[in-house]
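Justification of resources, computational component.

The compute hours requested in this renewal are based largely on the per-chain cost of generating structure records like the one below. Each record pairs the submitted sequence with a full structure-token output. That output is archived, and it is also reused by downstream analysis tasks.
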Amino acid sequence: MELAVLKHNGEETGRKVNLSEEVFGIEPNDHAIYLDVKQYLANQRQGTHKSKERNEVAGSTKKIKKQKGTGGARAGSLKSPIFRGGGRVFGPRPRNYNFKLNKSLKRLARKSALSYKVKENSLMILENVSFDAPKTKNYLALLNGLSLADKKTLLVLPEVNKNVYLSSRNLPKAKVVTVDSVNTYELLDADSLVLCEGSVSKLENLLLK
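The structure output for this chain reads:
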């Protein structure tokens, strides 16, 4: 499978990149994608939610009325959950939502996501990007050249480039990552995936271990 390498203005450079069928041309595994996305979203949760139960609420423990003879139900304390301002029954407690997935399954999920992008014609190969200074207008010009200014994009760099990252940070629909931090959720969330020419071989080596 071959894709043309594009210049920053959207024109073809004349070079082509061979994409591995084992990474970009597999039969997508939807269940692997589901599990990997589920883990990613679970890892974003802080798990710091907490409500006070009756033993944690501030207030008097004095019995508010006598046990019998009132015609109503027994009531031992204002901190009871049935009263306003009382504790909550079975409320949320701090917990960790993380769970483990095998590396092979996570690799399968990323390969499946990449294969979906190829099938949807949502993958572009771009010559390597480098800016002299962090300027949003430079990144916006790059997106305009590729006709992607109004789409949610994910640009994958072969290595960390601070100027490119900072240039994209103010654009709500643009995201820049490096090869080693690519995840299934962000691949699927982007309308268009843009791989730098130097990222392709690194990505294939990472997913074919």
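DSSP finds seven helices and six strands in the chain. The CA atoms of residues 39 and 100 lie 8 Å apart.
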